[in-house]
Structure formats: structure tokens, C-alpha cells
Write a structure and sequence with these properties.
The chain is an alpha/beta fold. The chain contains nine helices and eight strands. The chain has a domain of about 80 residues. Helices cover about 45% and strands about 15% of the residues.
């Protein structure tokens, strides 16, 4: 929160809304103490419905500005982060989403077994040194993403079927939302000037966590593709084929075997989602038939 207070943007130009999503610690006391000292307007709100999308939607409803920018509680904003986003919208007034670069802060050093090609599983984003337009499936990550507030009137809010929820590592909440924007003709951009540092938690630096993350990535991807299959059917098949083909050249490189394990974990996640949906369909069919014969 201090990194948000210390932005180079004029203090009257922005506000900070902190959404507490069911914490049981001293979050409220800490925020209110900072708010009393802050030159930037800061508000604390409590969202009892657990889930990242619930928290983001509450933040949207509570915000008063024309642009809503999101940052996670384990991230630090560069001093020029807010001004870089504002400048990007001034240069691209038709943009419906702008995200920025995310760099890691390791507890000590990047593990030797974790290759750069898999940093996206930790929320790390680097799409280059220039502003560029993004298309599905390459969107900004939720740790550093922003929208004009008018977008939520046109497109709706984040789907609450996605996003972290307790111990479930569901994702795709920003993918699903950005895809809706793109379907309506909206333009999505990446700007390298808006930088956020993602503080990597030590417990995430294990192969077990990474494979669990890959499994839930598969669950999320399968759910998303099922809901939007008409728009992405051909693209999703191409992406799955690309993933499998990449295993073989990656085998000889650093992280090749780990990448193969991630592909398997993701496929298992997809299978889980498929079987759950199939079982629900069978159960509904049985109930309908029983009602019809009674």
C-alpha cells in the first residue's frame, strides 16, 4: 500500500480502495492507520464473498475514478506506475484495457530448475519494450491491469466462476473478461512503462506447487473454452497442439521435463472439468426421465 501512496502522480489525481476479502488478521487496522497518515484518499471495504472476482467487482463498485487499475496484495507498484497508465490512456483514448510489465522479486534467487519460459505461472509479464496491442490468448495479467470504468457498463463485471477462491487456484478471470472486450471490438494494450514487482512467496517455489498450479490452469482453461467454444474452438485446438509439439524440442533444454509434467497436469485438470460437467449432465438427465415417468 505504501508503494501506491508514494506514486509520482499528483495525490489529488487518484484514490486507493483496499478490498479485504474475508481476512482474519489486522488488515482493517493497518489500512485505517495508513489512511489517517496518507495524503492520497484511501478507503477500506470488506467483501464477505470469498473469491478474487468477488473482490475485484467490489472494488469496481466502490471506485470513483474514470480508470480502475488493479494490483495484488503481494505486489509493489513502481513510483511511475499510475502516471504511466494515465499517459497510455491519453495516447490511446479508445483503449478498453491496458496492462503493464510484471517483474519478480525472489526470496533469495531464482531457482535453477525454474526456467524463464515458465515464469508466467508466477504472474510474470514481459511482452517487450514497446507498446503493443494484445489479442487472445495473450492478455495482461490481473496483478497489473486497468480499465476505463465505462467498460464495466458495456461489458459487465468479472465472472465469479473464475479467479482464486480459497484453496482452489482457479484463474482465467482476466482472460474471460478481456475476451469479452475483444469480442465486442474493444482494443487491449500492453505498455512497458507501467511496472509492478511481484513478490514471490517462498511456498510457491516448489515443483509440487507448480504442478498444482498447472492442474488448476487446465481446469480454468477447460471451463473457459466450454463457455466460449464457438468463438475460440479452432484457436484452442491449435494451442493444444502447439503445447504438445513444444514438449519435444523443450526436452533437451532446461526445464523440458518439467514442461512435460506441466502439460500432463494441465490435461488432468481439463479431464476433471470435463468429467464433472458430464456427470452433472447425466444426473440432470436422470432426474428429468424420472419426473417424466412418474
Amino acid at each position: 500500500m505504501e508503494s501506491l501512496i508514494d506514486q509520482s502522480l499528483a495525490k489529488e489525481e487518484y484514490e486507493i480502495v483496499v478490498v479485504d476479502n474475508g481476512s482474519t488478521d489486522q488488515t482493517k487496522d493497518v489500512v485505517e492507520e495508513l489512511a489517517r497518515k496518507s495524503a492520497v484518499p484511501m478507503r477500506y471495504v470488506y467483501e464477505e464473498n470469498i473469491g478474487l472476482s468477488h473482490a475485484r467487482n467490489r472494488g469496481i463498485r466502490e471506485s470513483a475514478g474514470e480508470i480502475v487499475a488493479f494490483i495484488d496484495d503481494d505486489a509493489l507498484a513502481d513510483p511511475d506506475w499510475a502516471s504511466a497508465l494515465l499517459s497510455a490512456y491519453e495516447q490511446m483514448p479508445d483503449a478498453m484495457c491496458i496492462g503493464g510489465k510484471v517483474i519478480p522479486r525472489w526470496p533469495s534467487a531464482q531457482p535453477r530448475w525454474w526456467p524463464n519460459s515458465l515464469l508466467s505461472y508466477l504472474g510474470i509479464v514481459d511482452f517487450g519494450l514497446t507498446v503493443r496491442r494484445l489479442y487472445y490468448p495473450r492478455y495482461p495479467f490481473g496483478v497489473n491491469i486497468s480499465f476505463p470504468k465505462r467498460v464495466f457498463t458495456q461489458v459487465g463485471l468479472f465472472s465469479e466462476h473464475y479467479g482464486r477462491n480459497g484453496r482452489f487456484l482457479l484463474s482465467h478471470e482476466e482472460t474471460e473478461f478481456c475476451h469479452r472486450i475483444e469480442r465486442q471490438g474493444g482494443r487491449i494494450f500492453y505498455t512497458p512503462g507501467a511496472v509492478v514487482t511481484h513478490v514471490i512467496q517462498p511456498e510457491r517455489l516448489s515443483r509440487r506447487w507448480l504442478l498444482r498450479r498447472g492442474y488448476w490452469q487446465g481446469v480454468s482453461a477447460a471451463r473457459f473454452e466450454r463457455e466460449h467454444r464457438r468463438q475460440i474452438n479452432q484457436k484452442s485446438h491449435a494451442l493444444r497442439l502447439r503445447d504438445l509439439l513444444m514438449v519435444f524440442p523443450a526436452w533437451r533444454e532446461k526445464g523440458g521435463f518439467l514442461y512435460l509434467c506441466l502439460v500432463v497436469a494441465e490435461r488432468l485438470g481439463r479431464m476433471r472439468e470435463f468429467l464433472i460437467r458430464k456427470s452433472h449432465g447425466v444426473w440432470r438427465g436422470v432426474r428429468v426421465r424420472r419426473r417424466g415417468t412418474s
